[in-house]
Amino acid sequence: MQRAIDPVDEILPAPRLITLGLQHVLVMYAGAVAVPLIIGRALKLPPEDVAFLISADLFACGLATLVQCIGFPGVGIRLPVMMGVTFASVGPMLAMATQPDIGLLGIYGSVIAAGVFGIVIAPFISRLLPLFPPVVTGTIIMIIGISLMRVGINWAGGGLPTLTRVVDGVPGAFPNPNYGQLPGLGIALFVLLVILALIKWGKGFLSNIAVLLGIVAGAALASAIGVMHFEKVLSAPWVGLVLPFHFGMPQFHLVPIATMCIVMIVVMIESLGMFLALGEMTGRHIDRKALSRGLRADGVGTLLGGIFNTFPYTSFSQNVGLVGVTGVRSRWVTAAGGVILLMLGLLPKMSALVEAVPLVVLGGAGLVMFGMVAATGARILTAVDFKGNRYNLFIVALSVGFGMIPLVAPNFFKALPHALHPLLESGILLAAIVSVALNAFFNGVGSAEKAEHDAADVAATAEHV
Q1: Which residues of 349-371 are buried (b: 16+ CB within 10 A; e: fewer)?
Q2: What is the mean pLDDT of the chain?
Q3: Pick from 337, 359, 341: which is nearest to 151 by CA?
Q4: Biggest CA-to-CA distance, the chain
Q5: For the chain, percent helix, then strand, then coil, each to nearest 5?
Q6: Which family does it belong to (predicted)?
Q7: Among the residues of 71-102, which ranges form H helices?
Q8: How many angstroms separate the Cα of 91 from the Cα of each of 96, 263, 446?
Q9: Second label for 290, Cα 20 to 30 Å away, from 38, 168, 347, 422?
């Protein structure tokens, strides 16, 4: 009897593979290019250098995604993961950008060092698995979805309510005049309705690419009413090479390196939550060895980022929700997305075309996808014993409360030391710390074997949902 192929390892026909991969790229594109735009402008780089940063970022995104999805000995979790630049690094890098003795080359030095640091500590971070029983993982995954909803809502509104601009070397916030305008909200709603209609009435592959078709329909509508513009597409060159150390050899400074290593720890703990979420969605048992490979790939991706003129990389949570929406679990789909990102990095004109898609179009899709992540966390919590163990109620209640602080009160921790801000500005990390601490306090810490058994049980439950 022929052995059934695991859905995670299934290689789909090329047309479906490319289409589904493109869908993943469109979902994560806005987040991928945001960081090089912010850092490039903070450093007052000329437009052609900022454009190169974006191309380099897309190229390195593709490389890091392939490392994570395809996997190599000891590296890569081999799940449907898309890699992108982490926003946790933006604050520290902006501070480095304002110091003349550090600048861009000092940033790259700190990124390379953080990548090596991540590769070394990956096995130690993976040993935290016993601290993550279902009551903790369900809570964290739910907070990941809730946190992402803010991103989706702001996309639907037309970006952030306030925009960051650098004036005289100092970043400042200014109101976004396009935020919440009726045309943009109408486009986001149109995209949402198209996706819902395709999910309900579409069959087979048509339903799987509902998000992509919704984005294409939204882009067509945006173009028809004059919201989508193509000037950058026409002016962009067809081909551009991304070579290592384009801006010069990196420089290594102790304090920036230490800061970026702290950011790396934060990023890896968040990635641990993402991997567990994908394990639930794909029905794949995530043990300590798998976590080590996935976290090590985060370090390798960050190291590649520093070499190829870009920044620290992490598993993009935006794309976790897309796996839940489509039900397509194949890691080769995101590997195809990685190849597309490589091509976009080398073909600036194609990159400019994707970049031209307005955020409001992505907003309609984001509301569906990010809500699915939160729903996955809620589904895991349904398997938790709340009736026989009332402590679990307090664990979830307080963890969700702490996780909401950065969302509803961004200035809540402003009086605390600035060095702690990378830890306190992530609702996901706060929820993780509080849920782990409360679970250890109320329920104790189980063995690694029990943690892996719990993860396998939850994954088996997800397999049959």
Answers
A1: bbbbbbbbbbbbbbbbbbbbbbb
A2: 79
A3: 359
A4: 70
A5: 70, 5, 25
A6: Belongs to the nucleobase:cation symporter-2 (NCS2) (TC 2.A.40) family.
A7: 90-97
A8: 9, 10, 36
A9: 422
pTM over 0.70: no
Element (H, E) at 199: helix 182-201
Nearest-angstrom CA–CA distance, 382 and 282: 18
Structure tokens at 130: 């016993």
CA-to-CA separations, 70 to 13, 80, 277, 373, in angstroms, rounded: 17, 9, 19, 24
d(CA 24, CA 28): 6
Q: Which residue has the tokens 């190229």?
A: 59
262 pLDDT more than 90 = no
Measured CA to CA, the distance from residue 392 to residue 389 in angstroms comes to: 6
Model pLDDT for residues 6-48, shown as the tens digit of each residue: 778 888 888 888 888 888 887 777 667 767 766 776 677 776 7
pLDDT at 303 over 90: yes
Q: How far is CA 92 from CA 30, 73, 339, 419, in A?
A: 21, 32, 30, 9
Q: Which amino acid is at 344?
A: L
**Which two three-digit tokens encode residue 26?**
């469109």
Tokens of 86: 């982490």
- 421: tokens are 């801000």
Q: What beta strand segments (E) does 31-121 contain?
A: 83-85
415's tokens:
């009086």
- Contact call for residues 85 and 305 (beta carbons, < 8 A): yes
Give the distance from CA 263 to its chain's centroid: 15
The residue whose two tokens read 């782990």 is: 436
pLDDT of 461 strictly over 50: no
